[in-house]
Amino acid sequence: MINKLSIKNLNFGYHNKRIFKDFFMDVSDGQIVSIVGPNGSGKSTLIKCIDSILQPSSGDVTVDRDNIGKMNRVDIAKKIAYVPQGSMRGFPNTVFDVVLMGRRPYLSWRGDKRDEEKVWEVLRLLGIEDLAMNYFTELSGGQQQKVLIARALAQETGLILLDEPTSNLDVWHQIDVMEILRSLVRKQRLTAIIAIHDLNMAARFSDKIMMMKKGRIIASGAPNDVMTGQNLEAVYGIKANIRFTEDIPFIIPMTRIAARA
Amino acid sequence: MKQVNRQFTIRSIYGAGKKTKTGKFSKARVAHSHALWKKALFLISLAALLVLSAGVILTLGQVPMKISDVYCTLVNSLVPGMFTSDELITHVILKIRLPLILGAIISGAGLGMCGCVMQAVLKNPMASPFTLGISSGAHFGVSIGAVFGVTILNGPYFLVGNAFLCALLCSGFIISLSALRGATSETMVLAGIAVNYLFQATNQFLTYIADDEQRNIMSLWGMGSLSSLNWNGVCFLLIASLICLPLILSRAWDLNLMTAGDESAKSMGVNAGHIRILIMTVSSLLVAAIVSFVGVIGFVGLIAPHMGRMILGNDHRYLIPASGGIGAAILLIANALSMNILGSVVLPTGIIMSMIGVPLFLSLILKGKRKEFWS
Description:
By secondary structure, chain A is an alpha/beta fold. In chain A, the strands form three sheets. A six-stranded mixed sheet of chain A has the order 6-7-8-3-9-10, sandwiched between helices. Chain A has a four-stranded antiparallel sheet with strand order 2-1-4-5, covered by helices on one side. Chain A is built from nine helices and twelve strands. The mean pLDDT of chain A is 89. The two termini of chain B are 40 Å apart. Chain B has helices at 2-14, 27-59, 67-78, 87-121, 134-148, 158-180, 185-209, 212-223, 231-249, 252-258, 262-267, 272-294, 299-312, 316-340, 349-367. At the A-B interface, α2, β6, α3 and α4 of A face α1, α2, α10 and α11 of B.
């Protein structure tokens, strides 16, 4: 399989605290890859290092064999889109204007009709065209998440990074967002890397799961192989009951086994 | 190649057409198109209002004249011999009134636009051109000149030179300090407020030790007035505007993205830290130039962008020119009132500016549909 993303020898730390030491990771094209792990394991930091939002002290991040570290911001934005955790704060903007922001890497000062057309296409694709003239801050959490995904799609990249896309949503919207992502990955050959807390959502919708602890990948592979009692115990320090529905693991956390390391 | 395929997929699934199945544009598209027209129409109306009101204001004063005299004289000065015009009227318009009018328009537009972009890069609806302590820095320069006689320039521009240099030093210090700490908006605002307090304290000390005449100079400058503007000043402000404003306007998209947050902006191709330093440097330069000639006319830089946001929304491609136009209109009217309201007595423009600006701004807040200026 072709590698969409490849990380080699990545080193990163906040001030004196080292997060990644000689970190390696490969992601194949056209997959949903979920990164799971306890708070502070480095999921969001990894996402930001891939997109060069945080600058690694050393190491190579390559997307489609292009070294991200040697590219300028606009060229990176044409390769990787990022959907941040939570909503936007700031001066209120309409949904159309928020999604149009995703066209920034391609825009001239005046803007182009083709860019506007792209925005309408993406809004229609996600079924939110009618919300175009509403203010982003007036939308529900689920609608806001769709708008942020639409903004990422407007960037026309092959790789989308999502930081906790379901964390503030009810169950219906969690499934809605994850189904949208799966449909995009299947139909448009996108690759999505998702930092996510919900183990069952990750197991249900991912092609591959990477389980992280303290900046290291402890287990990686298909959901069935990764979501084992042993791995959950080693990474989260919990005992869990794992059941299978349609061959998909379903995790029921039972007890903590010890104070967290 | 891959991108072309993907685009094809989106189009093939959902259709590339602009219209719905019934052959009509969707309601959202129609609303969007109307909104764009409204924005363009507002900007054109604002420009027309400025030209008309400038013409009317040029007729006001102790030498009576008609509005047709004003436009004939102006056309005549550009294309000599086109109309016949009275020598006294020509002298009054070109030598006395026009520099003030143009000075008000350039200063108001500059302060409005700089206020708008500073609010965007500092992500703070309370930011204004004076957030980085430019006014207190400039005031310090004036105080030094008035009390100790230490001046950069000699002659009539001794206060202007001092104010300009000290304002630039003050904002330069804050921008450099923030750049060392990653140029976040919070660092800049906090450093700006801190330095503002320092200069205010120094100014109070200098006021305390100054004699009556020196105190008078410092106090009058602090009130802000356009009455001392002449063609030299207007030319200086025009050159500063022509250098700074295109740089600011060319970053309109980047400013839109920065309102989404630094990380999001970065992920969409905009280095927020760099843009923040660039915009603050350029706008500080322009504000320092304006303040050194007209003193502290602070309120216009805060309210003009907010009026623009209430009317046009937060797309900086339209908002920056609108803030400039609104700022120019407010300062033009405030200046006309300050020059004419008490006959031959000229009031400081800054006072009138706040007196008409605050009620206007408050009425817009109360009448406005939106309750949120920041979310």
